[in-house]
Structure prediction request, 284 residues.
Amino acid sequence: MASIVINGETVHLRESSLKDFQRFTEIAFSRLRPDASIRQTVGTVLIDALKQGQKIGDTVAQTVLWALHDLGVGKIDYDFDANTVSLSEVTDTEAARGGEGAMALAACETGRAYVAALANVQQRTILVNNQPIRVFPQPKEMLAKLSQSIQANRLVNEDYVFTACRGVGAMLQQGKSPQDPEFLAALEITAGFGVADIVVDVQSQKLGIRKFREANAMAASLLQGANAKQVQQVRERIHQWQERIAQAATGQKPAASGPQSQKPGQRLLVPPVIGNRRAVRRRS
Prediction:
């Protein structure tokens, strides 16, 4: 039985439900901060719950403890008077890394995959022209605005991942940088499609995708409401894209199965402005 030491006392954990983890995730996601680790964020959720009258054995506290357990925390010491929480005996885990292994089918069905999803969006990065850029969650309003622009710029039968990448290229062409919130939001959407490495040649108006990461797409889909089966479908799709990149690198002909629009790694035209409606009508 899983356990965790709290203020010197060993506490055994009992199972929490999928809905419990979903409620926890809503709270924890709203508290994510760029300068705080996912463990620190979850630790504050725990101490606030206890200060509000929750007991260690209550469902809310148990769910938060499961999250800390999955994040590799072995010992917790808190002090209400000082309003502090200390996490120690920490070990590295797949969930703490935000890896795809912690978002497998069983973890999605129980809800524990949400812990890994939170860790993923807290620390994910994307390479743009070999420069690592942190992709921290941006305001919902900004993401909604850019999503509408992506819809407006989508070409006929174009996969959304390429529309999003072209949007990133367009912003670079406009001179936007990682200091621009709109550019960071565009990268967040692109990373949510699983893109981990993109190269953009502004002068020739061409770009290419060099790498996908399954975990990024799985985390994004889970936090956007996908169920366990849908998350695994996302994983398989990204796996297929990554295989195509590997095949292109070795000169092999891509297999017939999998996504059939444009091939990862091929050079794509960049639209001059992401918000402009294209002359070619998009697919409904």
Summary: Residues 95 and 112 are 9 Å apart (CA to CA).
